[in-house]
Design brief:
Blueprint lengths: L1 E4 L3 H10 L4 E4 L7 H14 L10 H4 L5 E5 L2 E6 L4 H7 L2
């Protein structure tokens, strides 16, 4: 597996454009913003790529097609119809 550390939107776009099936792109939350999320969403919708994201931020999670909510190391919710309300409820 090739691991890329992307700090900017341009670095993320380059990693996505590489279109390598075994590439992992790692970003810190401090560097992640709406432009990055839009690029990731487009990578899924337009290029058919898979994205696995780990976040505590519900606004970020709302970009996903599926959200797994974990508590104490166990999956407690598997959401596929992502809304702010069902994310908030799942986190209670």
């Amino acid at each position: 597996m090739l691991l890329s550390l992307a700090h900017t939107r341009e670095e993320l776009a380059a990693a996505i454009a590489a279109n390598e099936p075994n590439r992992a792109v790692v970003m810190t939350m401090g560097a992640l913003h709406e432009g990055h999320l839009d690029l990731l969403r487009r990578a899924v919708d337009e290029l058919g790529q898979s994205v696995i994201m780990v976040t505590h931020d519900t606004a970020t999670a709302a970009y996903a097609d599926r959200v797994l909510v974990c508590r104490d190391g166990r999956i407690v919710s598997d959401l596929r119809d992502i809304t702010a309300d069902n994310l908030t409820a799942a986190l209670r």
